[in-house]
């Protein structure tokens, strides 16, 4: 997973890198980079975020949709979603459509 | 259960240019010698990609005998997978090595080498097979590819194990290599008696490999065969002496592959593992991989073996090692007994000790 400078906010529209494999398993999921063989273990919330990042929703939209999936979300959920997105963005696991298709 | 296997072994051809005496493909009436056309494999590799399989192992036969080998590799890359190869090394040249390198997806390429000289290596693997194998190992290492070596231990190469270790670890400079031993595969396998280690030879191989391991710490790997058994049996003996069980044992837990992997024969038959070649679960092109993985009663029955206590088997009752034994490999049990959900007699420490005693030997 290559390093990309993180410049994202809640209004960013992002998508999962199509070169990676999101492999859902019983107790979470694996985000697999076939180029490097790196595997990142995702918890159910991170999986939901990855699946909602479809290149159309903003991170704010994603947060709203998460509220419908998970009851009683943490008051700091927005900050956590942004932190997760930054983390995934840094390693190239997510990006804008323009970045990931060029 | 996982929604699909993480890894799939693909026996992409039943053809081979070697005549290894202990290979189950050689003159085996249980093997279907029918290779599938390129299109069928390409469609299946696309199916693996859709199922989010992470890696495949290309084996056979000699996988590289397929003229479309790199077409299949390209499909693996396109479908976001990594791959490994099992080979005798005979078809590897600089051009092949560079093409493999270009993929950037090769996890390992394993070359079989059974001895440090042609005389030893070729006893079981056939004349003229040593130089290509060693040449391939050197070439792949030179090109920076992840080459590994498997040394199969049999009665006629135990004396050479220190020399082959020296060749691989010091002369060629590999970080490590792995060992195993010959085991029968499938119900129709035809093996000569001298392929298998006698109890005396098995003990000798264990001691030899343990000494080599001491000399090269962490550089000799073994998931099966004499070195693996040396460690397994010592663990069991220690547990017996302390009167303590080993956590998670005492049931048929010797096989973990069936929870993460599947295999496909050259004729497209889905099988649980290459050690169970006659246990057909479905057919490529007719059955869906995911459906076979999740719903085949035979495979799910095989997975349930981990719940079967060893003391439910008459042959295990009263054994001092009951709470530290794994029951070993389902494939080995099936080959030897015709039943997959039984402990394999081949890996029974009590039986091994009794056999040693018959020869006037004792387990250290």
Element-level helix/strand string of chain A = EEEEHEHHEH
Question: What pair of chains forms the biggest interface?
Answer: A-B, 14 and 13 residues
Quaternary structure of the protein: heterodimer
Residues in β-strands, percent of chain A = 15-25%
The number of helices of chain B is: 12
Helix content of chain B: 25-40%
Gap between N and C termini of chain A: 16 Å
Quickly give the structural class of chain B. alpha/beta
The secondary-structure class of chain A comes to alpha+beta
Mean pLDDT of chain A: 89
Task: Please give the radius of gyration of chain A in angstroms.
Answer: 13 Å
Write the H/E string of chain B, N to C. EHEHEHEHHEHEHEHEEEHHHH
Low-confidence runs of at least 5 consecutive residues of chain A:
none
Strand count, sense and barrel status of the largest sheet of chain B are:
10 strands, mixed
How is the biggest beta sheet of chain A arranged? 3 strands, antiparallel
Mean pLDDT of chain B, nearest integer?
A: 94
Low-confidence stretches of chain B: none
Q: What would a concise description of this structure say?
A:
Chain A has 4 helices and 6 strands; from the N terminus they run E-E-E-E-H-E-H-H-E-H. Chain A is of the alpha+beta class and 102 residues long.
């Amino acid at each position: 997973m290559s390093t990309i400078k993180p410049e994202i906010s809640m209004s960013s529209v992002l998508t999962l890198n199509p070169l990676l494999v999101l492999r859902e398993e019983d107790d979470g999921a694996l985000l697999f980079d076939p180029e490097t063989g790196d595997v990142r273990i995702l918890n159910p919330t991170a999986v939901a975020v990855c699946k909602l990042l479809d290149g159309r929703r903003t991170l704010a939209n994603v947060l709203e949709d998460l509220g419908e999936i998970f009851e009683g979300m943490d008051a700091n959920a927005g900050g956590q979603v942004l932190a997760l997105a930054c983390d995934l963005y840094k390693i190239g696991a997510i990006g804008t459509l323009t970045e990931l298709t060029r | 259960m996982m929604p699909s296997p993480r890894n799939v072994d693909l026996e992409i051809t039943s053809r081979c240019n070697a005549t290894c005496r202990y290979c189950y493909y050689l003159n085996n009436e249980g093997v279907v010698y029918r290779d599938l056309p390129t299109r069928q494999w390409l469609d299946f590799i696309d199916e693996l990609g859709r199922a989010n399989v992470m890696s495949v192992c290309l084996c056979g036969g000699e996988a590289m005998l397929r003229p479309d080998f790199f077409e299949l590799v390209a499909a693996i890359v396109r479908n976001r997978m990594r791959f490994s190869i099992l080979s005798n090394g005979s078809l590897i040249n600089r051009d092949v090595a560079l093409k493999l390198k270009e993929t950037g997806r090769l996890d390992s390429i394993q070359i079989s080498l059974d001895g440090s000289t042609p005389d030893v290596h070729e006893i079981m693997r056939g004349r003229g097979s040593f130089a290509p194998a060693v040449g391939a190992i050197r070439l792949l290492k030179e090109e920076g590819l992840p080459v590994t070596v498997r040394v199969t231990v049999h009665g006629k190469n135990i004396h050479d194990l220190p020399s082959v270790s020296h060749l691989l670890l010091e002369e060629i400079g590999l970080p490590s290599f792995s060992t195993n031993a010959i085991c029968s595969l499938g119900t129709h396998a035809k093996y000569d008696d001298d392929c298998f280690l006698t109890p005396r030879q098995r003990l000798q191989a264990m001691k030899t490999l343990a000494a080599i391991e001491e000399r090269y710490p962490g550089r000799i790997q073994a998931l099966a065969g004499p070195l693996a058994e040396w460690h397994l049996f010592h663990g069991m003996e220690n547990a017996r002496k302390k009167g303590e069980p080993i956590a998670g044992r005492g049931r048929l837990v010797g096989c973990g592959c069936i929870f993460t992997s599947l295999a496909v024969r050259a004729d497209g038959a889905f099988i649980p593992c290459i050690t169970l070649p006659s246990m057909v679960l479905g057919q490529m092109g007719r059955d869906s991989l995911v459906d076979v993985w999740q719903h085949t009663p035979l495979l799910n029955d095989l997975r349930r073996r981990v719940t079967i206590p060893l003391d439910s088997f008459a042959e295990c009752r009263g054994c001092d090692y009951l709470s530290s034994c794994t029951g070993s490999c389902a494939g080995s049990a099936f080959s030897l007994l015709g039943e997959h959900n039984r402990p394999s007699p081949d890996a029974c420490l009590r039986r091994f000790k009794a056999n040693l005693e018959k020869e006037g030997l004792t387990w250290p």
